[in-house]
Input
Amino acid sequence: MQTTKERLIAALQDAETRTLATYQSSWSGLTEDQVEENRDSYGENVLTKGQDDSIWKRIVESIINPFTVILLLIALVSLVTNVWLAKPGEEDP
Output
């Protein structure tokens, strides 16, 4: 499968008639039947805007990764051992 750039280069290097034949077009453009057929095959030629994720979802997705989870677990273990389980006067927050 060729990339868009490769197809463009090939179209520029071929003769005009061959390029038009390859893309089933003409100097006057596509016929109405070809337009309808392409719309049925590929859909309307419109841009769609995807929904933006909420700020909370983006924050959670940026925080929740393996490295962050490990750091949070280490912080929790440190809190338990150095603050809660420490003898009075020996707490080291």
